[in-house]
Design brief:
The structure is a single chain. 31% of the residues lie in helices and 15% in strands. The protein is an alpha/beta fold. It has one domain: Aminopeptidase (3-Layer(aba) Sandwich), CATH 3.40.630. It has a seven-stranded mixed beta sheet with strand order 1-3-2-4-7-5-6, with helices on both faces. The longest helix is centred in the middle third of the chain and has 30 residues. The N and C termini lie far apart (37 Å). The relative contact order is 0.18.
């Protein structure tokens, strides 16, 4: 099987993860999907392209090839809920964020297929994260994991109304030292006009919660970006370069801070 993710190793204490950047769907799966399933509508559209500046920075990053509809790298294989009582999708989603079925009748994956996808796509990605954080901490004495995400401005099944521009999550402070997240919020307020919140609707997914361990010198932060602040209003598949460059300037400040 072709490599299921792209990985680049840098020399700084920072690792960036883009778990929902992938859009590929295996050819043997395509015929089992509905139109919604083939759409990739819930992927973090062009999030890797938004962060294109990291190619010139001394940071590690990891990006998957395959869609979250194949397997969601930011969910637990044990089925642990991130937000009990609220709508959320599973490690192999059956429905989209707007409630549409992703599979044709009788074509959804059974337990064995889900386990196979976890072994094929999920475990290699997470083994790489775990090993890279271990390497970074050994080299620098600490490590920082930045989990990069984006989502539509409005997703009624997930949250009411419009999403703030920038949504930081640290599992209510459990995954990252509070002084660091507060500095990121302060930096946002002083250097931009974006709305910013911390640990509101999005508190961090499996990756942030699982790897963040401030007491052992690993800080993990999730940033969920409202796609309206970097994508064209006319198409979710086109970056608005004027919007994106404004946002990139702020993202670069974050990355410079964390990669010291």
């Amino acid at each position: 099987m072709p490599e299921s993710f792209e990985f680049h190793q840098g020399g700084s204490p920072l690792l960036l993860s883009f778990p929902h950047d992938g859009t590929d769907i295996p050819s043997d799966l395509v015929g089992r999907l509905t139109r919604a399933g083939k759409s990739n509508n819930d992927c973090d559209w062009l999030i890797g392209a938004l962060y294109n500046f990291i190619n010139d920075m001394d940071v590690s990053f990891i990006k998957p090839r395959f869609s979250r509809y194949v397997v969601d790298l930011n969910r637990s294989p044990e089925g642990e809920l991130l937000y009990p009582g609220q709508m959320e999708t599973s490690i192999c989603p059956l429905t989209s964020f707007d409630g549409q079925s992703l599979y044709l009748n009788y074509e959804s994956p059974d337990k064995d297929e889900i386990e196979s996808r976890v072994d094929t796509y999920w475990r290699p990605y997470h083994e790489h994260i775990r090993n890279e954080l271990k390497r970074i901490r050994k080299k620098h004495g600490h490590a920082i994991l930045w989990d990069a995400h984006s989502i539509s401005d409005e997703v009624p099944l997930l949250f009411e109304g419009h999403l703030p521009s920038l949504n930081f999550g640290s599992a209510n402070g459990a995954s990252c030292d509070k002084s660091l997240t507060h500095e990121l919020v302060r930096m946002t307020q002083e250097n931009s006009d974006y709305s910013v919140v911390l640990n509101e609707r999005f508190k961090g997914g499996y990756i942030t919660r699982h790897y963040g361990d401030p007491k052992n010198s690993i800080n993990a932060i999730q940033l969920e970006i409202n796609q309206n602040i970097y994508l064209s209003q006319s198409s979710s598949l086109i970056i608005d370069e004027n919007k994106a460059e404004k946002l990139r300037r702020l993202l670069q400040l974050y990355i410079l801070l964390l990669s010291k």
